[in-house]
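User: Can you recover a sequence for this backbone? Please restate the input before giving your answer.

Assistant: Of course. Working from this structure:
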């Protein structure tokens, strides 16, 4: 069966729970996102164990953000896991993104633009000028120029980013909430799966709408139906 263009956000610190989450969707989803919570608790060996067992494509969501030398060295440390995607914050700047790309040549360095949990008010508070959309577009342009091969943005920003960047890049969007979802949790700039695919997303990052469901396989299947 064709797999979904979905990256499952396995947001847990527990290897056994991660193992169960991955197993229960494995016939529909073959891209798995492991992030800071999991990595900081368990480390690279645990990530490698899960990869070995389930043979998934790894989206390593470490959202690196530091001086170029430090990010380059950190990237080199995880390159042996061969993540398909490794996230860095675009706001770290060109040299930092370039350092990551140089140190993990087999990985698509994936630049996070404006977090989907941030609203216009949050941006104003940080001191960023413009709208989330205009900021995300500028950050995406900078990141791709510096060597990023994929961009994380809100589904509401996909079209603007595609229009501004001629290169072949993967656009990956969190902030996905299926139609009829009870709430959006801490996500503020959200869209439903079908609209995000229609807008041009290559992959949807989905966590709680699947991992919080009593029947995760059924939740993944419902999303599959919704995207057709
Ligand atoms: O549970 P939910 O579907 O909201 O999970 C979304 C996932 O995507 C989380 O793991 C979060 O860290 C991640 N993410 C995000 N916004 C970004 C980048 C990553 O929500 N800009």
């Amino acid at each position: 069966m064709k797999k979904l263009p979905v990256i499952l956000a396995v947001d847990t610190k527990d290897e056994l729970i991660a193992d169960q989450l991955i197993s229960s969707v494995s016939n529909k989803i073959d891209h798995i996102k492991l992030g800071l919570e999991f990595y900081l608790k368990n480390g690279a060996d645990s990530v490698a164990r899960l990869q070995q067992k389930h043979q998934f494509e790894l989206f390593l969501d470490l959202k690196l953000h530091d001086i170029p030398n430090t990010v380059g060295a950190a990237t080199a440390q995880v390159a042996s896991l061969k993540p398909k995607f490794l996230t860095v914050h675009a706001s770290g700047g060109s040299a930092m993104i370039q350092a990551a790309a140089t140190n993990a040549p087999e990985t698509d360095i994936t630049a996070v633009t404006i977090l989907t949990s941030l609203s216009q008010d949050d941006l104003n508070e940080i001191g960023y000028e413009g709208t989330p959309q205009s900021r995300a577009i500028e950050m995406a342009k900078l990141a791709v120029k510096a060597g990023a091969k994929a961009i994380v943005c809100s589904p509401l920003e996909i079209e603007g980013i595609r229009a501004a960047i001629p290169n072949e890049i993967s656009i990956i969007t969190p902030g996905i909430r299926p139609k009829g979802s009870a709430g959006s949790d801490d996500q503020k700039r959200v869209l439903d799966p079908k609209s995000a695919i229609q807008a041009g997303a290559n992959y949807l990052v989905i966590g709680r709408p699947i991992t919080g469901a009593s029947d995760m396989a059924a939740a993944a299947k419902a999303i599959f139906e919704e995207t057709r």
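That completes the design. The pocket of cytidine-5'-monophosphate is lined by residues 9, 11, 35, 112, 115-116, 152, 174-175, 185, 187, 205-209 (CB under 6 Å).
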